[in-house]
Design goal:
With 263 residues, this protein is an alpha+beta fold. Helix content is 34%, strand content 20%. The strands form three sheets. Strands 5-6-8-9-10 form a five-stranded mixed β-barrel. It is extended.
């Protein structure tokens, strides 16, 4: 057993008992010092660390400039306010004098898209890539054991209740019954409670579409779980049956699937 603390215990403590009396003052001072500390480090650091740090700062500044430009929402043309000359304009000049608000509109749409995308952020945005050699074990078959077209999956898999194996002669990917799971420990991030729920399917495995179709469950995989017993309802009052959750552990090492519900 590991002695490391589990969960957001600091946030939980703050919700229950509040912040230290000098917390916000100390935080303000720390943020004020941060620029000086960063500058001091940049002047002192040498070698490969300096290169990496410079690259990181360059990326941060570029992102900052983009954000500022997005929030300014400039309009390039300002001709609509000018007074028009008396008399009718020729048809080919009619559209030229009208300011287009397309840029502001597109900026608003981009901002909304970013906010919407922020809702669907997952607990583990990046996962370690798994090689085929680690995922599959070559199974030799045939009378002389010289055929090598079969593969045994070495990771945890999910198969439905009505799953039937193919005859051995046609089965390319073997999913060992000892590594098949039907339930997962799913934690609700808002309730801070864990439920033991049935798995309905594997929605997406970030490693490969092949692993998704085979039902392979690895760290970072998105699974669908049956949340009917939690009593969740939609705004219209209908009961929610299935919800997505992301796997946060290595199931083949731990012998169980731990996941966080995507709410």
């Amino acid at each position: 057993r590991s002695n490391m603390p589990q969960g957001d215990y600091i946030d939980l403590h703050r919700k229950r008992f509040g912040y230290r009396l000098d917390y916000f003052e100390r935080k303000r001072k720390k943020e004020a010092r941060a620029g000086h500390k960063r500058s001091q480090f940049a002047q002192k650091v040498t070698g490969i660390k300096a290169k990496l740090y410079g690259k990181k700062r360059y990326a941060e500044k570029a992102q900052m400039k983009k954000t500022i430009a997005l929030h300014q929402q400039k309009q390039l043309k300002q001709n609509a306010d000018e007074k028009l000359a008396p008399g009718a304009l020729p048809p080919y000049l009619l559209d030229r004098r009208v300011t287009s608000t397309a840029k502001v509109l597109s900026n608003m749409i981009k901002q909304k898209r970013k906010e919407k995308a922020g809702k669907w952020t997952v607990p583990l945005p990046k996962v370690r890539p798994i090689s085929e050699a680690e995922m599959f074990r070559v199974i030799r078959s045939g009378k002389r054991k010289n055929k090598q077209w079969k593969r045994m999956i070495t990771k945890v898999t999910f198969v439905g209740d009505n799953f039937t194996r193919k005859p051995p002669k046609f089965e390319r990917f073997i999913r060992p019954s000892g590594l098949r799971f039907k339930k997962a420990h799913v934690t609700h991030p808002d309730l801070k409670t864990t439920f033991y729920l049935d798995i309905l399917g594997v929605k997406k495995n970030p490693q490969s579409p092949l692993y998704t179709s085979l039902g392979v469950i690895t760290k970072g995989c998105i699974i669908e779980v049956n949340v009917s017993e939690l009593g969740l309802v939609t705004p219209t009052g209908k009961v929610v049956w299935g919800k997505y959750a992301q796997v946060t552990n290595n199931p083949e090492n731990d012998g169980c699937i731990n996941a966080v519900l995507l709410v």
